[in-house]
Amino acid sequence: MYLDQLIYSQGFGTRRHCAGLIAAGLVAVEGRACLDPAAEIAALSGVTAFAVEGQPWLFHDKAYLLLHKPAGYECSQRPGAWPGVHTLLPAPLRQRPGGGKSPGVQAVGRLDQDTTGLLLLSDDGAFIHRMSSPRHHVPKVYEVTTRHPLDDVQVGRLLAGVVLDDDPRPVRAAAARAVDERHLQLTLTEGKYHQVKRMLAAVGNRVEALHRSQVGPLVLGPEVPQGRWRWLTAEEVAGLMGRG
Ligand code: URA
Fold first, then answer.
1. Catalytic residue list contains 112
2. What are the pLDDT digits (tens) for 145-201?
3. What angle do CA 231, 237, 240 make, to 5 degrees?
4. DSSP 12
5. Predicted TM-score (pTM) of this structure
6. Cα distance between the two ends of the chain
């Protein structure tokens, strides 16, 4: 891949801007300034290192990201009342050009503004589709704080299935376990709008706080504090795609 293409593909601005950065000696590859926009770079995802204006970056063919979403952020591409989760990403990830009609890096599914926890983002359409498709039943684990004490009847109903207002077919939790009187661990394999909140309301309780701790085999660990993000490894992506 030519150097100017590489810099552009990673979100460092328009093609013209990238050419200007190279001409100004502001792009270094493997630690050395490179002034030739047509220099051939063996671009290996997660391996090829370069720097733009002193900012070190690793080339990634596609972006697969894990974000620890804080409350007070919207997942939408065009957020309204709250800032978008994209504002938590560095500029190159916000500006990565999408191929064709792709809008670039986007959230895989949605978490509500007040929900915290594990959010995936990507610019790989096939990955986004695979992770969001109801056919694939990717399990998602939620830690739910409830307003009212939980009892066995509520947990039993969540497992047996509850009817929500937009569909006569019951939705059931793949797993539900009361951790203590007001904390429930709930595993869902669908992704209906406000599903956890609506399921808890359907059994006569209410969600006070909601945190997603796991998606498929991927667990949100302490290495990613709230508001921070990291790249997924190739093994993690394969695991999420069911090829691990
Ligand atoms: N269910 C909800 O109600 N909200 C979320 O953010 C995610 C699942």
1. yes
2. 999 999 999 999 999 999 998 889 999 999 999 999 999 999 999 889 999 999 999
3. 125
4. S
5. 0.94
6. 29
* Candidates 4, 61, 112, 167; catalytic one: 112
Q: Is the CB of 184 under 6 A from ligand 1?
A: no
Buried b (16+ CB within 10 A) or exposed e, 21-46: bbeeebbbbeeeebeebeeebebeee
DSSP 103-172: -SSEESS---TT-EEEEEEES-HHHHHHHH-GGG---EEEEEEESS---HHHHHHHHH-EEETTEEEEE-
Q: Phi and psi for 15 in degrees, rounded to 5?
A: -55, -40
Q: How far is the CA of 116 from the centre of ligand 1 (A)?
A: 10
Considering the domain delimited by 64-133+220-240, tell me its CATH architecture: 2-Layer Sandwich (3.30)
* Architecture of the structural domain at 139-215: 2-Layer Sandwich (3.30)
Residue 144 alpha carbon to ligand 1 centre in Å: 10
* Residue 97 DSSP one-character state: P
The rounded distance, in Å, linking the Cα atoms of 137 and 132 is 9
Return the bridge partners of 178, or none. Answer: 184
